[in-house]
Design brief:
By secondary structure, the protein is an all-alpha fold. Helices cover about 60% and strands about 0% of the residues. The chain has 15 helices and no strands. The longest helix has about 45 residues. The radius of gyration is 26 Å and the shape is extended.
Length: about 280
């Protein structure tokens, strides 16, 4: 990450237009941090933060690809610059996004974590409050986890918040609970395993996001301590379909492995017989 920068002059309309043109000249953004442009190398600096914030959080979200690409590039640039002054507006903008905005919201956890600066509470409080829409709130567990990774001194606070939120959650939002678990996995929070395991036993965690408890336990390198014989009693039809698909995939993989081993054994047996036959023929 680049160091936090401080702007030295105010934004003009010309700044906004020039920056828009510069960002639209970049390739269309692709998913994944490894695909982000290096925006400072594109000539952006602290003087562009105000304009970038405007472009990243428009009052109206247009449907055309250029407008949406512009938002994504501006968000990423702010994250790379660790533009803390943009954080409040970015946080507000997230609350205006919906299911149709997955492309724009995809990077939001990293963007929020990078722009929160020392204001961990500004990022943590929305998760505690629980007053956001389900869509906007779904990005917060990953954002909190990303903050804990980027700020190791606050890692334990991030783990404690995610764990407490999971512990106090009901079964009505199993997908959100799974996102909390994903955040804890990201933070390698083995200390949270008892709470996570209990959530699985209670049927409060969607299994599509991270898999079954056994998969999570393997990720965290912990052992089971509870009875999991009823973990699947309350799963949804979608989860059932997913689980059946996974089981079928495993069965196919096992069958392929069996066939390969069978083929290898047959080849080995044939080589052994051929060798014995040649040896016998040499004796004649």
């Amino acid at each position: 990450m680049f160091p936090t920068l401080v702007a030295t002059r105010t934004m003009t309309q010309s700044d906004l237009d020039n920056l828009r043109e510069k960002l639209l000249a970049l390739p269309a953004p692709e998913y994944g941090p490894h695909n982000w442009e290096t925006y400072r190398a594109c000539g952006l600096d602290a003087n562009d933060v105000a304009a970038l914030t405007r472009l990243a959080t428009p009052e109206e979200i247009a449907d055309d690809p250029d407008s949406r690409d512009l938002i994504i590039h501006a968000q990423r640039a702010l994250a790379q610059m660790q533009a803390v002054e943009a954080f409040p507006r970015l946080l507000e903008f997230l609350q205006r996004l919906g299911d149709e905005d997955d492309d724009i919201a995809h990077d939001y956890p990293l963007v929020l974590a990078a722009t929160a600066g020392d204001d961990a509470e500004g990022l943590f409080e929305p998760l505690r409050a629980g007053a956001w829409s389900d869509y906007a709130r779904s990005f917060l567990p990953e954002a909190v986890a990303a903050y804990g990774v980027q700020h190791p001194s606050r890692r334990d606070e991030a783990v404690a918040l995610l764990t407490k939120t999971l512990q106090e959650s009901g079964s009505h939002d199993r997908i959100f609970n799974a996102l909390l678990v994903a955040g804890l996995i990201h933070l390698a929070a083995a200390e949270s395993a008892p709470v996570i395991e209990q959530a699985f036993v209670d049927g409060r965690v969607d299994i599509i996001t991270n898999g079954l408890w056994g998969d999570v336990a393997a990720e965290l390198e912990v052992e089971s301590t509870l009875d999991h014989s009823h973990d699947l009693d309350s799963i949804s039809d979608e989860e059932t379909d997913w689980l059946q698909e996974q089981m079928a995939r495993i069965a196919r993989a096992e069958e392929e492995r069996r066939k390969r081993n069978q083929y290898k054994a047959a080849r080995k047996d044939k080589r052994k017989k051929d060798k014995a036959l040649k040896k016998k023929q040499r004796r004649k």
